[in-house]
Amino acid sequence: MRSILHCDLNGFFASVECLKNPKLKNVPMAVSGDPKLRHGIILAKNELAKKYGIYTPETVYSAKKKCPNLVLVRPHFEDYHKYSKLVQQIYLKYTDRVEPFSIDECFLDITESLELFGTPVEIAYKIKEEVKNTLGLTISVGVSFNKIFAKMGSDMKKPDAVTVIDYEHFKEIIHPLSVDKMLFVGKSTTATLKKMRIDTIGDIANYDVNKLVKKLGKMGIELYRYANGIDNSEVAFFDTKRNPKSISKGITFPEDISDVKKLIDVIIKLCEDVSKSLRKDKMKCSSVGINIKYNDFSVISRQRKIFKTDIFQDIVNVCIELFKENYNNNPVRKITIGLSQLESQDDEVQLDLFTLQTENEIKSKNGKLENINRLVDDMQEKFGVDKVSFGNVIDKNIN
Question: Tell me: domain 171-227, CATH 1.10.150.20, correct?
Answer without folding.
Answer: yes
